[in-house]
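Sample intake sheet
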Amino acid sequence: AGFEPYVDKFVAACNSLKEDLVRAGVDQRKVFMAPPAIDIGRWESAMLIKPAMFLTRPYKVGAISMDKTLKEQELFLKIAKAVLGKLPDTNFLILGVKDERIRGMARSLGISHKVDILGARSDIPEVMAMLHIFVETSLREGFSMSLIEAQASGVACVVPRLRGLSDFTLHERNGLLVEPGASECYASAIESLISNPPVCHNMSRIAFDYVNNNMSLPVAGNLLQCLYEEALEV
């Protein structure tokens, strides 16, 4: 807010940050929300195969986390344990930090044979093509590009109700919102999607359309260009 006299426009990447700027005292007429941009071409091939995938079993549920404390990975494994208690054919996959303790956690829960632990990968579009459901396990407010990439790949997403993370998710439209850290709530949401393939597929299609219509490079580029042009005219 102290810089406001010298700034024509404040651009926030999500509504939560926009609200923070206004709350801090920035004139709301100067604050605009411009979502992140994504190259849809890299991800839409995954979307194209989803109609057939949602008719097949078993379902594959995945997560990506770079949390070095491993709390997010531990939560994902607890979610997997709860889901497997009711839907034992489900498969799970986790990417991100490579740490043998994750495998140890899976063994202690008795589910290591149902979880692929892949570490960091450079072929995320191909990984997203294999998933039916993406789980965001963050315990902190913030923003996740992996979540946007999952939606752009036509993967149904389960997202915690946290500022930033849930800004681009409409509950029961382009994803399901759950209580942060509540493994049973996550598990219930995942079970409902697996038990209703048409609902899961429809959600994935809406998620793709939302990202394509609001975050594709042409859309985001045009919006930023307009904001710069307006600022330069002042």
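Comment: Residues 197-215 form the longest helix (19 residues). The chain has a mean pLDDT of 94.
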